[in-house]
Amino acid sequence: MKHTRRSAIAKSLALVGAAAVLRATAHAEAATAPSGAGWPALSANLARICRCLAIETFGNIEWHSQIDMALATGFDAAARQALLEAIDFSALTKDFDFGPKGRSSRPVDIGVGWERDGKIIKAKLVGIGAGHGIPPHVHKNMTTATLVLSGKVRIRQFNRLGDLDGGVLVRPVMDRMQTAGDWSSISSDRANLHWFTAEDEPVFLLNINVENLGGKAIPGIRVEVDDAPLRSDTHMARYISKEDAEARYG
Q1: What are phi and psi of 22, to 5 degrees?
Q2: How far apart are CA 207 and CA 139, in angstroms?
Q3: What is the mean pLDDT of each run of 10 residues along the chain (250 residues)?
Q4: For the chain, how big is the Rg over CA atoms in Å?
Q5: pTM value surpassing 0.70
Q6: Greatest Cα pair distance in the chain
Q7: How far is residue 250's CA from residue 174's CA, in Å, rounded to a whole number?
Q8: What is d(CA 29, CA 49) in angstroms, rounded to the nearest whole number?
Q9: Helix ranges, the chain (H)
């Protein structure tokens, strides 16, 4: 009996030790910034930053900071062109089916895909037809970096100040026209509500998501943003159905 108990304890300690080594290795690998320039180096750096968030090397605010720095220094015209070639952008977008809502998405492999302990990193191409949009929405337990690949899109973002009965309290932080080479990012801690509108031409975006952070990711919770602020620049964003969101914003 004692021998069995000792064996069980030894096995448990071995498993704990192995898990600790794996975690330490993962943190070390994620914290090592890749060298070089161009899209391969940028892709590797974006993957590293997202893994650091997923394994809790740092939190959302540092993720925003590092994503912004990586894209500001690495997402130049040459890197963008290399990315388009890597995903065969011309073939992907030729006769693109925007669907009945005027937008659709499909997964793409840009070298950032990763999954461990329920956390997921993935990328997708999002197409928005001219005159259509992605209605305002909030997220839970995830981050998204959005890169504009082609076209011109109006992006509005709001900080989420708190939850209220039937909605959220928000404050606008960005209302800007973006074109190829621009980017934005959202998390639970910054710019949690965002809203996209394509105007006179189709728009293609690349989303890089880190999901299931502190719980199951809940993307695309539709809201209706009041035009008139409650006070100063603070607005109420009421939860609405997807159908109502499409009718008003799609």
Answers
A1: -65, -40
A2: 14
A3: 57 47 47 67 97 97 98 96 97 95 96 96 98 94 97 95 90 94 96 94 98 91 77 85 88
A4: 21
A5: yes
A6: 77
A7: 20
A8: 11
A9: 2-31, 38-54, 60-74, 77-86, 89-93, 242-249
